[in-house]
Specification:
Elements (H helix, E strand, L loop, with lengths): L1 E5 L9 H15 L3 E7 L19 E4 L2 E6 L11 H13 L5 H9 L8 H6 L6 E5 L4 H13 L3 E5 L11 H6 L2 H9 L2 E4 L2 H9 L7 E3 L6 H4 L4 H8 L5 E5 L8 H13 L5 E5 L4 H9 L2 H4 L2 E5 L3 H10 L2 E4 L8 H8 L4 E4 L4 H4 L6 E4 L4 H13 L1 H12 L5 H16 L12 H4 L2
Helix pairs in contact: 1-19, 2-3, 10-14, 11-17, 15-18
């Protein structure tokens, strides 16, 4: 089988959705299939609206048997018509029922992001058996993938990676549930969702239940464990408790709130340091620059780290925190649990469908710095409790091989090779695996 994957970024970038697609593509190749990835040249997320941010220089590449084709982004000529401004205008036009907003959404969606070469690039590749695209926040790429699939008369599979924020009416919810985005999901031949929450929200938005497939997520256990925690601590010169934020450093990810919480704990006498590892958004850079020296000492910002460094940090951490409102799952939780680490998440997005509050982790309100500080304090000051919480999470960890088997079942269904067996649809407790 040959698959064409269309996603906003890909290896060597290692965000959650990118790693999700990398796992699928590489498993397909390992089973004798062929995979092409069409992606952009963006490295920084902000590259999608700011041409000054970093890009990947290599336009063609290959990794673990997967062919990677990177395409340049285009930008509107007027500085004020930025990607972010257009997105906000689109989302608010839906909320306020602005006259003509449907036409506005169709027009604006074309630039979300603007990748004019995508369809031409796809036409130069061998005909795939299916096209698999993501995600609804980058709907121009999903729409282009749909057109490629229809033109070549093959199935189109979509991973929406839906973010629901703090629920209906929240800003994040509006940005991910615009009518033209949902129409793309409804028209897909199969929709892969990561949690029961995502499935239920899309079902309520009239996505055909027969096309919704609850697949969950899995991790490479060997690639996520076995790190050298002492080596990581020695490199950073740290001996006390560490709370690790592993992922993009951004407001929506709760990274700013985590640093504020840890700074407050240090001022109150609790010995703890926040270690932030992952791509750094400009808003977080500005936040760090604004801190006074005492609070700045509460955080070590490492930027993007290698897979080996990632394993070492997971081994070194006492707590792993992702108090985010923009998660469709949170692979970091599985990585933490695989290492026996307790986690802290936010009561937002899909996180409550993954983390069982008070059992295998603690949940706090998004942006609630005092509650977050208390959760960190409880876990770092009671190592026995932290160990129990982390150990409980281990039972939820699913290997990448098991998870990919569910994806393969979806592929077989849309290709007509076999029907899904009983047990693929799981409840929320199972799929937090």
């Amino acid at each position: 089988m040959r698959a064409l994957y269309v996603i906003q970024r890909y290896y060597p970038f290692a965000g959650g959705s990118e790693r999700y697609f990398q796992g699928i593509a590489e498993h397909l190749v390992s089973e004798g299939g062929e995979a092409d990835v069409l992606t952009t040249d963006a490295w920084d997320l902000e590259r999608f609206w700011d041409p000054r941010r970093r890009r990947v220089d290599e336009s063609e590449g290959e990794h673990n048997g997967v062919a990677i084709h990177r395409l340049g982004l285009r930008y509107l000529p007027l500085p004020r018509l930025t990607h972010r401004a257009i997105r906000r205008l689109m989302a608010e036009s839906t909320r306020l029922a602005v006259p003509g907003h449907s036409a506005m959404l169709r027009a604006g969606g074309h630039f979300g992001p603007w990748v004019p070469e995508l369809e031409r690039a796809a036409s130069r590749l061998p005909r795939p058996d299916l096209v698999h695209s993501a995600n609804v926040a980058f709907e121009s790429m999903v729409a282009a993938a749909e057109r490629v699939a229809r033109r070549r008369d093959v199935a189109h599979v979509v991973c929406p990676f839906l973010h629901v924020g703090e629920g209906p009416g929240s800003r994040v919810w509006r940005y991910y549930t615009m009518p033209h985005q949902l129409d793309l999901v409804r028209r897909a031949d199969a929709v892969i969702v990561l949690t029961a929450l995502e499935r239920d929200v899309l079902s309520a938005f009239r996505v055909d239940d027969a096309r919704l497939h609850l697949v969950g997520a899995g991790i490479d256990l060997a690639g996520s464990t076995g790190g050298e925690g002492d080596a990581a601590r020695a490199r950073m010169g740290l001996e006390g408790p560490i709370v690790l934020a592993l992922g993009a450093a951004a407001f929506d990810k709760g990274t700013i709130h985590l640093v504020q919480a840890v700074a407050a704990l240090r001022r109150a006498g609790t010995d703890v340091t926040a270690v932030v590892a992952g791509p750094v958004m400009s808003e977080f850079e500005r936040f760090l620059a604004s801190l006074d020296p005492v609070d700045r000492a509460a955080v070590r910002c490492l930027g993007f780290v290698s897979e080996g460094e990632r394993r070492d940090l997971l081994a070194a951490a006492d707590v792993v925190a992702l108090p985010s409102r923009t998660e469709s799952f949170g692979l970091v939780f599985l990585e933490a649990w695989a290492n026996g680490k307790p986690v802290i998440g936010a009561r937002a997005g899909a996180i409550p469908a993954v983390v069982d509050d008070g059992w295998d982790g603690l949940l706090v309100g998004f942006g609630d710095v005092p509650e977050l500080a208390e959760a960190v304090r409880v876990l770092v000051e009671d190592p026995a409790l932290a160990a129990r919480v982390g150990d409980r999470g281990r039972v939820k960890v699913v290997s990448e091989e098991t998870w990919y088997g569910r994806v393969r079942d979806v592929y077989r269904q849309v290709l007509g090779e076999a029907r899904l067996g009983a047990g693929t649809e799981m409840d929320a407790a199972d799929v937090a695996t």
